[in-house]
Amino acid sequence: MTTTDADTSGGTAPAAACHGPQPKSDPVVGTGSVTDTAVENSAPGGHGYAKQKDAHIKRLRRIEGQIRGLQRMLEEDVYCIDILTQVSASTKGLQSFGLQLLEEHLRHCVADAATKGPEAIDAKVQEATKAIERMLRS
To answer: Which of 13, 103, 104 is nearest to 4 (CA)?
Structure first.
């Protein structure tokens, strides 16, 4: 899964590393795609999650399997409470993944901003706060 940025021509560009340019606005979410706000210079492996990428992909595939399991449960007319239990497990898995990714962002990107001065720190803290707000609303 690749995170991309919407560009003005309707195409996409690779998302910038955490220590790239500061976002100028809230992320724009298009139909069926994940977007980021930074649009310049992606550094391979520059994201906080880079060291854990394979483990994250494995974890997301497991969650994807849980979602597919939900589809099968509906097709097989499984009891409602059993489906709700699976929904809860899937939701918990996504929340746990999101928190781990947030922690990695704080350790890598916010820590990197700390070496660049107060303005960079403030921007990354604001960015992280907005991400936490979005997670809490979901």
So the answer is: 13
Of 105, 100, 128, 124, the closest CA to residue 114 belongs to 124
**DSSP secondary structure of 46-87:** -STTGGGHHHHHHHHHHHHHHHHHHHHHHHTT--HHHHHHHH
Residue 24 and residue 31: Cα distance in Å, rounded?
A: 21
Cα angle: 4, vertex 106, 93; to 5 degrees: 70
Q: Would you report the helix, strand and coil content of the chain in percent, each value rounded to 5?
A: 60, 5, 35
Q: State pLDDT tens for residues 99-122.
A: 999 888 888 888 888 889 899 989
The model scores a pTM over 0.90: no
Q: Is 45 exposed, middle or buried (0-12, 13-18, 19+ CB in 10 A)?
A: exposed
pLDDT for position 15 = 42
- The more confident residue out of 34 and 57 is 57
